[in-house]
Write a structure and sequence with these properties.
Length: 449
Amino acid sequence: MADLPRKYFDDEAFQDKLTCVLLRDVKALQECASVLRPDDFKPLPGMRNGRARWIVAERALEYYNKYHMPIGSLITADVIEYATGIGMGEQQRQELQKYLAYLAKLKPTAPDAVVSKVLHYKGERMRAAAIQELVDLQSIGQLTEAKWREISVRALLNGKGQVKPISYLETLAARMERRRQHADHLIVPYTLIDPLDRMVQTIGPQQTGLIVAPWKRGKSLMLQWLARALIVQRRNVLYFTLEDAQRIVEDRFDAMITEIDLKRLSEYPIAVAQRFERFRTTVAARLKIYDGTAGGVTLSRIEEVYLAERDSGFLADAVIVDYDAKIIPAQKLSERRFEYDALYTAQQQFASRYNLIYWTAAQTQRGTRDLKILSGDKVAEDINKMRNVTCALTLGKGDWGKDSIYIWVAAHKNDQMEVGCHIVSNLRRSLIYDCEATEASARQHETRR
């Protein structure tokens, strides 16, 4: 075994790509974390960044094995804490920080190919070790049929990534530490709609959310607001527009970001460019828009686009789809509600599979435009849509003037529901939520009481 070549693990570029994947990609971790060991990253003499890579990979694996989620942006704080704990020297600390900065710029391209190489290499080593053990037992006359079966099964299983059951009663300390390290907003991001955030947390990774409203009430603007809120909080967003043309969606984002009226964007090109550049510099390239208005988009197609972007190095934290009625069902069923039930179940599985925050929208029934509170039975086609998501928000007609909207938490699996709040929109700037106008209206209506 000692003479078996390390193959990919002798390649510094491969080790860097693998380390980058281990920091963020939950699917890759699920498939290969169980077969990787920190010593797989033990550097050979003369390797660049060898010790720093070894430490970062070890911390990433240890974190995932404890908390069952990627360490992500917490890696810097974790490494600093680790370095302090072992009394690491200043020069080595600087090497670590330099390597982390390098990884931050490195795109984790083709993660499935990286994982495939890891599993192939590990499988070879497991089989070689099993053969040697069988030979040794045979040579001393102790190779029984039961031992043969045990060694063979172990070799086959250990050469593949495994998702192991968690011993709930034995892992309280790990859960407490996870909750200590992860402030709530790091797991469930804010919507940046202050009245709503004060009431509830919406959705986090592996969860689905639904925006429900009558036609022309602001479903698309709400989804675009959520996309902006996510990228401000350093989440990568893949936005699918299935109804409005891409140019319209882009113009709305420009108006929202630059705070310039939608119809006057062409009048102020310099201001648009300057304000957009400030925003872009702050959040980096965290938003990609896919135009599916030509039709024919299925959930499988959405997953294909997500995986293609993942292979190119853009690992989305959130997928937003505008909106559900434009997604073609995977198969034609006897009733539309059965198709929606299958779609919403598949959406939840998609979000869980890739650790995604997933938002979409649905339309209410006819005759609901004048309703303030839109409950679950007002959803067009099927109330099961709300039952199949983590959180459902409805946009009703507000009492604070023509631009006001009443957000009602119609369903929630993890927080309170059947509570609501008023907001004021600004359609000229493509804002579903105008903070200043909302606060002014709130003060005005509070004074009248």
